[in-house]
Amino acid sequence: MAELSDIDNETVRGEIEEFLVDPAEIERFVNLFAAASPEMLEIAEAIIIGEHEDVDSLTQQALDNGTSALEIMDDGLIAGMGIVGIKFREDFIFVPEVLVCARAMKAGMAHIEPILSASGAMTQETVVMGTVKGDLHDIGKNLCIMMLRGAGLTVIDLGVDTAPEDFVNAVKETEAVVMGMSALLTTTMPNMERTIEVFRDAGLRSEVGIMVGGAPVTEEYAKSIGADAYGKDAMACVEAAKGLAATQHSKSAT
Ligand code: B1M
Fold first, then answer.
1. Which of 94, 137, 157 to mutate for ligand 1's pocket (most ligand atoms within 8 Å of CB)?
2. How many alpha carbons fall within 13 Å on the CB side of residue 209?
């Protein structure tokens, strides 16, 4: 395991020392940040302190210096947001501060998204994605969408607080073979199951592969509500979407 002193950024070291308690979380973040370059640590720092203008310029600078969009996303933006999430969970910071950090994250993602989207050739596969009803979290969903587009899939983004009927209508209109739902709250997870029921009631359940994800969602939960696939992160979401599209096509070919 790396040591705290291996992290080449005083603010990030201080954040871990001051706010992280769980040994497994400390180990994960120390290893992650110890392996990150000083540029990525600066981006993570700017996310943690919510400096959206700095995130904007540092992300552009890192891209100009040849750092890959994926490295910036994983070691800078998502890593910084991870610390923010823990501080929020432990009541060290509250909604207004998190919103400031989320705005900083979005400033960085604005540079990353077009690159990841352009990195794959577009295909005919269409995926409908949305955050479920009652849920306003969209950072993870947007990351998944970025990666799906980067993998060459066409994505219809229904945004946040998406009613079951809106998922159904979007699938009907676009003839999408894959639909994905994101939920970040334990209170909104049941809306995934409700949405699947509405697909069943509309006679469309077998027409579309349904995948689910979001921090509180697990593989077991996905199975228990009748989803076809679960994605633990954005990469897994892409794999799930590709797998579901292939299954849907082979079903329609037989
Ligand atoms: Co909220 N929030 N929040 N929040 N928020 C959480 C989720 C929470 C865990 C914080 C905490 O208490 N520790 C907690 C939920 C607790 C629970 O239900 N068990 C919580 C709460 C309670 C709330 C409010 C109720 C707070 C309040 O008002 N009292 C409120 C609810 C508002 C609402 O939705 N109705 C609220 C509000 C907000 C903000 C608006 C301030 C802001 C959202 C801004 C935005 O999204 N535009 C916010 C944020 C930022 C967070 C945390 C800090 C970060 C979430 C995030 O963006 N993570 C979060 C704490 C945490 O997660 N550690 C928290 C980074 C993102 C990259 O990860 O979204 O998990 P994630 O996505 C991952 C994977 O999950 C996966 O891929 C992504 C990339 O790897 N994935 C999929 C996601 N969707 C997928 C779909 C797939 C496949 C994979 O297939 C379809």
1. 137
2. 25
Instruction: Please say whether the beta carbons of 56 and 26 come within 8 A.
Output: no
Instruction: For residue 73, give the nearest of 3, 173, 144 by alpha carbon.
Output: 144
- How far does the chain reach from its first CA to its final CA, in angstroms? 52
Helices marked H in the chain: 10-19, 23-35, 38-48, 52-64, 69-71, 79-89, 95-118, 139-150, 164-174, 190-201, 219-224, 234-253
Distance between CA atoms of residues 77 and 11, nearest Å:
15
Residue in 62, 19, 57 with CA at minimum distance from that of residue 40: 62
Q: Tokens for 64, please give them.
A: 């100009």
pLDDT at residue 5 above 70?
A: yes
Count CA within 13 A, CB hemisphere, residue 113.
16
CA 128 and chain centroid, separation: 15
Which residue among 184, 218, 239 is best mutated to probe the pocket of ligand 1, counting the most ligand atoms within 8 A of its Cβ?
A: 184
- For 132-178, the pLDDT digits (tens) are 999 999 988 987 887 787 566 889 999 999 999 999 999 999 999 99
- Mean of all residue pLDDT scores within the chain: 92
Choice between 250 and 76, residue whose per-residue pLDDT is larger: 76
CA–CA–CA angle 233, 236, 241 (5° rounding): 125
